[in-house]
Amino acid sequence: MPRKQKVSEFELMLLESARQAVAIAEGQLEGRITERELPVAEARAKLNLPRSEFAKLLGVSPRTIENWEQNRRQPRGAAKVLIAVALHNPKAILSVL
């Protein structure tokens, strides 16, 4: 008789996610849209600024920058827009500094 394998916590989470996806697709559960994470460290690198200077530019603490860079939190409002600009056109931000 074959031995029953133990199901890991990760496998249980995957199964629950699959069940939720089916329920959303069938209209039984309301889904939520998550925003794409901004690569804050990449934006800061494009500006060639240390964390403390980048924080001053955005009007936040260096700890907040650290949290954003490590994806513990996500930027909002004007900071989010400035980070997006830094990613796509760093010269625009550097020209006003």
Question: What can you tell me about this protein's structure?
Answer:
The chain has 97 residues and is an all-alpha fold. The protein has a domain at 40-94: 434 Repressor (Amino-terminal Domain). Helices cover 60% and strands 0% of the residues. The protein is built from 6 helices and no strands. It has helices at 9-25, 40-47, 51-58, 62-69, 77-88, 90-94. Helix 2 (40-47) crosses helix 5 and helix 3 crosses helix 4.
Supply database-style keywords.
mainly alpha; 97 residues
Quick synopsis:
The mean pLDDT is 86.
Write the layout of secondary structure elements.
Elements lengths: L8 H17 L14 H8 L3 H8 L3 H8 L7 H12 L1 H5 L3
Helix pairs in contact: 2-5, 3-4
Class inferred from helices and paired strands:
mainly alpha
Please give the CATH architecture of the domain at 40-94.
Orthogonal Bundle
CATH class of the domain at 40-94: Mainly Alpha
Largest sheet at a glance? none
Low-confidence stretches: none
Distance, first to last CA: 72 Å
Number of DSSP strand runs: 0
Shape by Cα distribution: elongated
Q: Count every helix, treating DSSP H or I runs of 4 or more residues as helices.
A: 6
